[in-house]
Design brief:
Radius of gyration: 16 Å
CATH superfamily: NAD(P)-binding Rossmann-like Domain
CATH class: Alpha Beta
CATH topology: Rossmann fold
Shape: globular
CATH architecture: 3-Layer(aba) Sandwich
Helix content: 25-40%
Strand order of the largest sheet: 3-2-1-4-5-6-7-8
Strand content: 15-25%
Distance between the termini: 35 Å
């Protein structure tokens, strides 16, 4: 694995907690973490990167401290703010891949679109209650829109509202890290979709094919218009 790899992590919550911990142990050139939230006591059961002592502090500030405690000398860049249409392309620039762990569909689709346009691999995931998914999109392979098409017109519950079992988030975050490691090692897991059912303890892999009518894959989406990502959603 080349030591000049640079990884962008969008979100520093439950999904990203195992991702950040595991990436901190790898020989990468830089880890960039983007988030605009503070550590909340009610989320500690799934945001395992933090402890009681971190409550009330900026997530990216405490995430950087945690990473540097795991591996001294690692370059950690923190960006306090959201991954937005007007900043997405500049944040992606120079990175080997993006790993997304946000808690809203608008950000998930924005990351997918921006990564596709920039030609950057994207590793994404989501979890609600006892189940979740992890997905890997590479340039030329199926994208998130091939899988979910678009942000639903009707508001849907996020994990913060519907609830999520902490270990389920941990499993999905670890899956993201595993996919990222494979990418860093030179593998190309095109269109891999992993489903995890925590109630049954079942993990299943399927391969997603590109849809002929996918607006992102067929080039209809070539920019990041704000109105594309303004469906009702929680932060």
């Amino acid at each position: 694995m080349s030591a000049d790899q640079r990884v962008l992590v969008v979100g520093a919550g439950g999904l990203s907690s195992p991702v950040v911990r595991l990436l901190a142990e790898r020989d990468i050139a830089q880890l960039t973490i983007v988030d605009d939230d503070v550590v909340d006591e009610s989320n500690l059961h799934r945001q395992t990167l933090y402890t009681d002592a971190d409550v009330g502090y900026s997530k990216i500030e405490r995430a950087k401290i945690a990473v540097e405690a795991i591996r001294r000398g690692i370059s950690v860049r923190t960006v306090e703010g959201r991954f937005l249409p007007e900043t997405a392309m500049s944040l992606l620039r120079g990175h080997t891949m993006v790993i997304e762990g946000a808690d809203n569909l608008a950000t998930k689709f924005l990351v997918a679109d921006a990564a596709h346009i920039a030609g950057v691999p994207a590793v994404q995931a989501g979890a609600v209650r006892w189940a979740g998914w992890a997905f890997c999109a590479l340039p030329g392979s199926a994208c998130l829109r091939c899988l979910f098409e678009d942000i639903p017109a009707d508001r849907i519950e996020t994990c913060a509202e519907a609830g999520v079992v902490g270990p389920v988030v941990g499993v999905l975050g670890a899956l993201q890290a595993a996919i990222a490691f494979r990418l860093l090692e030179g593998e190309r897991p095109r269109g891999e979709l992993w489903h995890y059912d925590g109630l049954r303890g079942a993990l299943r892999r399927t391969l997603v094919r590109r849809r002929g009518d996918c607006p992102l894959c067929n080039g209809e989406i070539q920019d990041l218009r704000v109105e594309r990502y303004t469906a009702p959603c929680a932060a």
